[in-house]
């Protein structure tokens, strides 16, 4: 069972304004298995390619590792090619697909996993 302490939200700021956000916690769908889940990772367009996404991902993975999750996974909306390329470049392995019913809209998602999150 997930604990509240499994959840984390990180916000990166630049000159007092939020420019990137990441969230992680216990898996929300069966496809993640025992992996912790990166629930959200967003970097604003004006600060992309500066290492913020990689830094947030690394810190989220560390948080999940410290809570005993053996690896991490992330769901990426099908067609989000920049995110897919990002996770592939970081060694993410495609582990399947699922439909996220979402609270607002349904989306098809590709799951990327890292069995050893220390590589992030």
Q: What are the defining features of this structure?
A:
120 residues, alpha+beta, Aminopeptidase, 6 strands, 38% strand, globular, Bact_Acetyltransf, Ribosomal protein S18 acetylase RimI-like enzyme, acyltransferase, Acyl_CoA_acyltransferase
CATH superfamily: Gcn5-related N-acetyltransferase (GNAT)
What is the strand arrangement across the widest sheet?
Answer: 1-2-3-4-6-5
Pick out the low-confidence regions. Answer: none
Please give the share of residues in helix: 10-25%
Count of helices?
Answer: 2
Overall geometry: globular
CATH architecture: 3-Layer(aba) Sandwich
What is the count of distinct domains?
Answer: 1
Protein name: Ribosomal protein S18 acetylase RimI-like enzyme
Pfam families: Acetyltransf_1
InterPro entries: Acyl_CoA_acyltransferase (IPR016181), Bact_Acetyltransf (IPR050832), GNAT_dom (IPR000182)
Keywords: Acyltransferase, Transferase
Question: Care to describe what's here?
Answer:
The protein has about 120 residues and is an alpha+beta fold. The protein has one domain (about 5-120): Gcn5-related N-acetyltransferase (GNAT) (Aminopeptidase), CATH 3.40.630.30. The protein is about 20% helix and about 40% strand. The protein is built from two helices and six strands. The protein has helices at about 50-65, 80-90, and strands spanning about 10-15, 15-25, 35-45, 70-75, 95-100, 105-115. The protein has a six-stranded mixed sheet, with helices on one face. α1 (about 50-65) links the parallel β3 and β4. It is globular. The mean pLDDT is about 90.
């Amino acid at each position: 069972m997930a604990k509240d302490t499994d959840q984390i939200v990180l916000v990166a700021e630049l000159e007092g304004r939020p420019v990137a956000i990441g969230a992680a916690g216990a898996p929300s769908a069966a496809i993640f298995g025992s992996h912790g889940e990166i629930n959200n990772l967003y970097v604003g367009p004006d600060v992309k390619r500066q290492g913020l996404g990689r830094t947030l991902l690394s810190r989220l993975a560390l948080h999940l590792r410290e809570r005993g999750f053996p690896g991490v996974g992330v769901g990426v909306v099908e067609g989000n090619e920049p995110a897919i390329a990002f996770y592939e470049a970081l060694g993410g392995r495609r582990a399947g697909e699922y439909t996220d019913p979402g609270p607002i809209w349904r989306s098809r998602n590709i799951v990327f996993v890292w069995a050893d999150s220390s590589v992030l």
